[in-house]
Structures are given as C-alpha cells and as structure tokens.
Amino acid sequence: MAKQTVAEQFVDILVRAGVQRLYGVVGDSLNPVVDAIRRSRAIDWIQVRHEETAAFAAGAEAQVTGKLTACAGSCGPGNLHLINGLFDAHRSMAPVLALASHIPSSEIGTGYFQETHPDRLFAECSHYSEMISSRQQMPRVLQTAIQHAVGRSGVSVVSLPGDIASEAAPDRAIEHALVTARPSVRPGDAEIDRLAELVDAAGKITLFCGSGTAGAHAEVMEFAERVKAPVGHALRGKEWIQYDNPYDVGMSGLLGYGAAYEATHECDLLILLGTDFPYNAFLPDDVKIVQIDVRPEHLGRRSQLALGVWGDVRETLRSLTPKVQIKSQRAFLDRMLKKHADALEGVVSAYTRKVEKHIPIHPEYVASVLDEEADDDAVFTVDTGMCNVWAARYLTPNGRRRVIGSFTHGSMANALPQAIGVQFIDPGRQVVSMSGDGGFTMLMGDFLTLVQYGLPVKVVLFNNSSLGMVELEMLVAGLPSYGTTNRNPDFAAVARAAGAHGIRVEKPKQLRGALREAFAHQGPALVDVVTDPNALSIPPKVSAEMVSGFALSAGKIVLDGGVGRMLQMARSNLRNIPRM
Known about the structure:
With 580 residues, the chain is α/β, with parallel strands linked by helices. It is built from 23 helices and 19 strands. It has a 7-stranded mixed sheet. A 6-stranded parallel sheet has the order 2-1-3-4-6-5, sandwiched between helices. Strands 15-14-16-17-19-18 form a 6-stranded parallel sheet, with helices on both faces. It is globular, with a radius of gyration of 25 Å. The relative contact order is 0.10.
C-alpha cells in the first residue's frame, strides 16, 4: 500500500473540518493537492476561470452556511489573484481557508520564477498566514489555520511549496480534534446589570442593528417591545431585522431611507446591536451610546461609548431583557414610526411615476419587479455600486431570503462569483446575481463556470452602459463624468453563444415575462436589461462634501429614490399606534 503524501494528508484534514469543495485554478505547484482531490470521494475540486472568483465563491458559501470553506491558487500570480476575494471574505467575517501553493522550497529567497512571499502578502487579509517549510509541520499548521478561521470568523492562509506537498507524510503526524463551530458568548453579570441600569434610566431608546443580529430576530423584537424602542438597521442588518418588525424605522447611511437617522439622533440612549457601522457621520455625537458586539475590537472604534458589552446579541438580550423595567410610554416610538411612513411617502413616487412606459427602463422598476417575481427563499448576490442601491431599496426580506454582497470591502465584480459559491450549496435553490454591466464584465469569464457545471444561476444584468456609482460621485463633486462609459455587446447574445439562456429586455412591458422565462429555465440564464443611465444621476439633496465613494465627511441626507414595498410595511406598522 502506497504511503500517504503530504498533499493527501492536507486534503484529509480539510475533509475532517467539513470542507466539501475547493475552488481554484490548477497550476504546477498546486498539482499534488488537486490530484489528491481527484482521488478523493469526499471533496470536489471546483474549476473556475479566475482565482478571484474562487475566493469570492468560497466566501459566499461560508456566509450562507456559516461553515468553513476553501479556495486555492498556484504559486506567485495564481494565489495573488485570490487576494481581493479574500479581503472581502475576511471583512465579511466568513470562515475561509486559502491554500497558496508556493515555489520549490529550495528556491525560496533566490528570486526564482514566479516567486512571491504569500505568507507576508496575505497577512493583512487574514487572522493567520503561515508557510509550511517541512512535512512534519503541515498537520499542526493547517489545523491551527482552520481554528483561526472558524474561531475568529475570517480568513486563514497556508502557503505550501509544491515539492513538500509531494513528499511522503510523516509516520507519526501530530493531529488533534478540530474545532469547527463557534460558541455562544455571554457577557458577565456585572456588564448586564450596568446595561440594565442605563436602559432603565433612559426615556427614549433606539436600537440600531447590523449583521450581528443574525439569529436574534425574536430577541430583538422582544426587547424593543419591552422598552418601546424604534429599530433601525445598517445595510448588512436589513435581511435579519427588517421583516416582521413592527418597530422598523428604516436604514441609515448613504443608501438609507426612512426615519432611522432621526431615531438614532433624537433618543436618550442608542444601542448598537452587532454592527460595526463604518459611517460615523451618521452616528450622533451628543447621545449616550451602548454597543454590543461579539468582537471586542469593534467596541468604541466608531463613536464614544457609555458602555461596551462583549457578547453576541442573542445571548446578551436573553440575559438583559428580563432585568429591565417594562416601559409604558411609547410616544417616541410612535412619532418615529409616523415620521418613517411620511418619509417613505415622500420618495415613493420616484419609482411609481410612468415607469411601465419609460424607455430606457428605470432600474428601480427592474428591482421592484424582480423582488415580486423571485422565490421567497431566493438568495440574491449584489454587485457593488448602483445595484447596492436597488437591493437596499427594493428587495423585501422575509427571514428566508438572503442578500450577499461586498458590503464592507466594496469590491466590484463580486455578484457573479458569489452566486457560484451559493448555488453549489443547493442546486435547487433560486440564486439571482444582481449584476451591473461594469462588475459583470470584469469577471465575465466565469459566466462560463455556470455553463460548465450547469449551475442554474440567474444573472439579472442592470445594463446602463456606465459605471453608474462612479459617475454619480463625479457629478455631486461638480466634475464632468469621464472614463465611466462602457461600450457593451448584446449580453444576451453572448450568453447564448456560451451555451446559456439569454434574453434581452429593452421595453418595460417585456420585463416580467423575461424574468419568469429565465426563472423557469432549468440551467443558467442571463436577462440583459437595458436601463436608464440617468437614474439617480443628480440627487437633489446631496452636497459635494458629503460623497466620496461610500465615505461621508459630514451630514445626514441620503440619496433620494424609491423604496419598493417598504412603504406598505411602514403604513402597516402605523396600525400599532394606539388611538387616543
């Protein structure tokens, strides 16, 4: 019986950690590992066309499953291509193990062909980045990397020279039981008691929620009811907290809407729940703030805190809620609910006025119809830029849908690669890539990955032939748009030439039927929708000083635009206000 190689041992440890797929592009230094996967029945090699896609796909799979995923790149240029997707995964707190294969170990440090130093290069986008320099070292380094990725919710990188991967594994390799799940983190009693005192002393309380409220919807609603608090959210908190929420006052930030800004600024106590909301221009500086987060390094780095609480949101609220007094006064909550509904009434006309006849098609209308036609458990992957705006305003969360994007790293071209990773988890679940033409064309080669594997991803392409968000930034800064125009092909024809289903939509009346046709198609499909490049091009209330990319220097006013079915939700919540 042939002795196990280091590469085979590497693959076995990944399997023990629950990894089911390794996304990547083959290459000479990576060949021993890829061949070990070929001979394994427990893990699949997913061949993509670009390593950046591999990292994005692994990160998206990890965000949906909460489990460790993996990607790989060959030495030098191969693994360098991983870096953007790994930055996104790391900043999204997705547990990803990246294999950066390396040049022959004897040549390291000599300026060899394709030589880089991956253990240094990936240090900024990982919790752990180490090189394996001997076969005896491999099991412990890989296991340590896995536990960093899982335990700290982020990326670990292992650099492995191809010659070491080909060596025989040591007879007595040190292996230990792998930790592949995170514990619940509960604050101490002293912190809970101090937090209860602050809550009881406050007359007006607002909750502002981020992605850390995942799995804590019931606890947040119970606490909001007990203290009569309006509930706002950041973009990454939308899918977890907006649905079935009678206290909803919308979203804060550049893409925000409703009364979230007012609610966070007019309260006595603002409680930040599981959010590392980066735009401190939207946070108050004259309100008492408490922050609850499972990652202590997030506490207080955006605003001055009266109290920082280290714990996950669900366990913290379970401990806190029984200890706080029930508040009977709801005047502040009712005022914010009314203000929220009024604010949405004021912008809803942006997507209801003659949109069914407007050519080029309003992108707001596309997003609104997509929201209506998509499955109740669909997963949407969303390109950075204007697609973020449409997703934030028009996708209706319900507790079963997911929305994945590059919401913290802000990378272009994320939607299609992320859709690949999500679709592999469950080929029967509807996965929709909301792609802009700029982002789609950047990694368009991996549309062929959909065809190669028969992945039934539906790409809805918002084709305005421009880099819309960049153009917006130029215009609000008083600059003429320059370098933002794309000369595009008929993307539907490109999709058909690639072997997928392609539909081009140029008139609003064609849209709903085209989406239904694409969703009914069994394989990959692309709907190329020609949209209005002038949508939101000159928002009337945004000053030049306020917008620079997604960073704001000052101010509260956000981009004007429609809000989809959220107005109906806001009107419904007004029924909760007691009649005098």
